[in-house]
Amino acid sequence: MMAGTIAVTPQVRWSAAGWLFDWTLGFLAERVTDPKVAAGIKEVVSENLGWLGLEDFGPGAARELRTLIGEHLLTAAEQELPAELTSRSQALNLLGELVSDVGGVKPA
Q: pTM higher than 0.85, yes or no?
């Protein structure tokens, strides 16, 4: 897969390289509380679908996914993405854009 896209809203889309899209979906799948939502997210990755709509799993799941992204995504990325990753700063910036897109606060 070349890239993946998350539909934050019907009008707002976030796209990233395939590896970063997969990492982001893995982050969500590991932390979302509904096992059916987690399985659906994992299927997007395993089938290389390259697309996830935050609204696809209903309003409750969408709220939880937005909260996970807005409050925890950057902290997890800073801890989990290897320091030697050549595109680490670009990846963190791109993840920061996703956090902003869902209404979270991007750390300074």
A: yes
